[in-house]
Design a protein that fits this description.
The chain is α/β, with parallel strands linked by helices. Helix content is about 40%, strand content about 15%. The protein has a six-stranded mixed sheet with strand order 4-3-5-1-2-6, sandwiched between helices. The radius of gyration is 20 Å and the shape is globular. Bound molecules: FE2/S2 (inorganic) cluster (FES) (2 copies).
């Protein structure tokens, strides 16, 4: 059975051989996307968290067959740089096994709430278990990432406001529209991923 999905921005086809195959198994074993971790396979630990049509799910509990035509974002495609950097600078990564799932959950939280409280962070992370860090550094990292995201957005807005001063004040009839000459902010061209790629022996599991 062939299932087509959009995974981390790429049109992707996976050939599965049993209807109940989990999205986690497909991502790791067929598409070699081993950043999504397999710890419990029972929906208990959150290590396998991915975004399915924008909502966080445990990939071990979702059948790949349910994902036809849907969008999947893993730790590879779901996490802004500010979140990754904050985890590193705050020491929120120890063994790292829980980290991909936490990063996806935090990215989703900050997408919905720019500056969440400690309570909201703890609620959002309730489904992600970490045996190493004690969570305090993770919560600190969320605050650092939130602050960085807010200041980054402000910088981007300030840059936008000054990028085309003449266009903003005195639009010339013959002048090219800013969109036609400005550096494109469009998403990179879609790529395609097909197949049954298995991780090579040297790749992280
Ligand atoms: S591996 Fe999916 S929740 Fe633990
Ligand atoms: S860093 Fe080891 S389980 Fe979280």
């Amino acid at each position: 059975m062939r299932v087509t999905m959009r995974v981390d921005g790429a049109d992707t086809a996976a050939d599965i051989d049993r209807p109940g195959e989990s999205l986690l198994a497909t991502l790791r074993d067929r598409l070699a996307l081993t950043g999504t971790k397999n710890a419990c396979e029972q929906g208990e630990c959150g290590s396998c968290t991915v975004l399915l049509d924008g909502d966080p799910v445990c990939a071990c509990l979702v059948a790949t067959a349910q994902c036809e035509g849907r969008e999947v974002r893993t730790v590879v495609g779901a996490v802004p740089r500010a979140v990754r950097d904050a985890f590193l600078t705050c020491g929120a990564v120890q063994c790292g096994f829980c980290t991909p799932g936490l990063l996806v959950t935090v990215a989703d939280l900050l997408e919905r709430e720019a500056d969440p409280s400690d309570l909201r962070i703890r609620e959002a992370l309730a489904g992600n278990l970490c045996r190493c860090t004690g969570y305090e550094k993770i919560i600190e990292a969320v605050h650092v990432a939130a602050a960085a995201s807010v200041s980054g957005a402000e910088e981007a807005r300030a840059t936008d406001a000054t990028a085309w001063p003449e266009a903003a004040t005195t639009p010339a009839v013959d002048a090219p529209a800013p969109d036609s000459v400005a550096p494109s902010a469009a998403a990179p061209p879609a790529t395609e991923r097909t197949g049954d790629a298995r991780p090579s022996a040297g790749e992280p599991q």
